[in-house]
UniProtKB/TrEMBL annotation:
<dbReference type="Pfam" id="PF13450">
    <property type="entry name" value="NAD_binding_8"/>
</dbReference>
<protein>
    <submittedName>
        <fullName>Phytoene dehydrogenase-related protein</fullName>
    </submittedName>
</protein>
<dbReference type="InterPro" id="IPR036188">
    <property type="entry name" value="FAD/NAD-bd_sf"/>
</dbReference>
Length: 473
């Protein structure tokens, strides 16, 4: 029987392991931390009984993709829940904008820009399953649905600052800025619209669901699926070199590119080593989890029903703050993403005390304290918020990186989303998962299609490994 070892148990490592095991391999997953799951871990971080997601909280691209179609995670306990409002963007003065899963409902709330919002997102949402089949794969390949992918690319390729001109109102432009800022890139650069268009379209197709019982339910379901196929997961095992591993036909590394280069060492071909060591990480995240009595008193009504909040003001203000962090400067008003997962999954709360997860975009390796800046942004749109905070848990970029070695400098998306790295991550190669050594592969979010708990980087890497193995038989 073919033997495989996966180093790292994030959603991509587990997806790779499940895919290999379901194709007949004997699979062992080795995890350095005491708990499996990587970016899908959840814990009681503030007060007992209140469940917070440590990193990834909403999973619009994990509902329907090639990996999730290959294994029924619902059979292993995974359940999705959706908030009434998928995401909202409050503005000064009590106004704002929001996205519902239904495009028509969203359009009605955007008034003068409603028709244009519908013209942009309705055709994309109608074809999104086919579009995702292509953009959740490496870019250097022949697309299965070239016309549909081309439609998506016509809006994903330009800078977000250009795409925002499709809308005339401050509300619609800010709404797009918030979702585009998930890229952690300057919004005037090529392909800075790509992640915003993908996540925005996903909201109108699948919603922005949460996993019932916390994001840890995703990794728990993957682990259960792996164990059902005979695979194993061992935690507390650190791998520093290939010599730490037993003999295996396939080794999958769910690590950063630099860590992969260190682990493989001199066995790595020079061109591959150079490519991995040139890989650049992006800005960081400063995380604060809150326990809030009575919820957050947002001035903008739909924000009180929204799973995700984008806090940063106007398009121009968000563009300025994202440009600043990419230049290594901490803005006075950073862009803040805030999750109210309990609205979709009330069991995360205890009585009238609710878990709220927030993080600010900050420069890579930022060594300051952004707690006040985050709270100021929330208070800006929800006066009286601080009075409701029962407890808080703070993690600096250093602590974020210590909790997950792939998050270098606090980079929770495992790599800068520059135009080059969006297309050629982690290095220019026809097979970006192969490390140039037979049986050795990289399967982390540093490979296509990038960050998220969708598992597609792991699935793609495993399929590459299986193809290579069959070709060698």
């Amino acid at each position: 029987m073919m033997k495989a070892i996966v180093v790292g148990s994030g959603p991509n490592g587990l997806a790779a392991a499940v895919t290999l095991a379901r194709n007949g391999a004997e699979v062992s997953v080795l995890e350095a931390a005491d708990e499996a799951g990587g970016g899908t871990r959840s814990a009681e971080l503030t007060v007992p009984g209140l469940l917070h997601d440590e990193c990834s909280g909403f999973h619009p691209l994990a509902v329907d993709n090639a990996f999730t179609r290959s294994v029924d995670l619902a059979e292993h306990g995974l359940r999705w829940a959706r908030p009434d409002v998928q995401y909202a963007h409050p503005l000064d003065g009590g106004g704002g904008a929001a996205v519902w899963q239904d495009v028509q409902t969203t359009a009605r709330h955007l008034f003068d820009d409603g028709a244009r919002w519908r013209q942009v997102f309705e055709p994309l949402a109608a074809h999104f399953p086919d579009i995702t089949d292509d953009f959740l794969q490496p870019m250097l390949r022949i697309p299965q649905h070239p016309l549909k992918l081309g439609l998506f690319g016509s809006l994903a390729g330009p800078p977000a600052s250009w795409v925002a001109r499709l809308w005339r109102t401050e509300e619609a432009r800010a709404l797009f800025a918030g979702v585009a800022a998930h890229s952690l890139r300057p919004l005037d650069t090529l392909l800075s619209s790509a992640i915003g268009m993908a996540l925005g379209t996903a909201a109108h197709t699948y919603g922005w669901p949460v996993a019932e019982g916390g994001s840890r339910s995703i990794s728990q379901a993957m682990r259960a699926a792996l164990e059902a196929s005979g695979g194993t997961v061992e935690t507390g095992v650190r791998v520093d070199a290939l010599t730490d591993l037993p003999a295996a036909d396939i080794v999958m590394l769910d690590t950063s590119p630099a860590a992969a280069a260190r682990i493989v060492g001199d066995a790595l071909p020079g061109r591959v080593a150079r490519g991995l060591n040139r890989f650049r990480h992006g800005p960081g995240a400063f995380v604060v989890n809150f326990a809030v009595e009575g919820g957050i008193p947002w001035t903008y009504g739909p924000a009180r029903r929204a799973g995700t909040l984008h806090l940063g003001g106007s398009f121009d203000e968000i563009a300025a703050s994202e440009a600043a962090i990419n230049r290594g400067r901490m803005p006075e008003r950073p862009f803040v993403l805030l999750g109210q997962q309990y609205l979709a999954d009330p069991r995360r709360s205890r009585g009238d005390v609710h878990p709220v997860d927030a993080y600010a975009h900050v420069p890579a390796g930022y060594d300051g304290d952004a707690t006040t800046a985050i709270e100021d942004q929330i208070e800006r749109f929800a006066p009286g918020f601080r009075d409701r905070v029962v407890a808080r848990s703070v993690r600096t970029t250093t602590e974020v990186a210590a909790g997950n070695a792939n998050y270098v400098g606090g980079d929770i998306v495992t790599g800068a989303n520059s135009a080059m790295q969006l297309v050629f991550r982690p290095r220019p190669a026809v097979d970006p998962y192969s490390l140039g050594v037979p049986g050795l592969f990289l399967c982390s979010a540093a490979t296509p299609p990038g960050a998220g708990a969708h598992g597609m980087a792991g699935y793609n890497a495993a399929m590459s490994a299986l193809a290579q193995s069959r070709a060698g038989d």
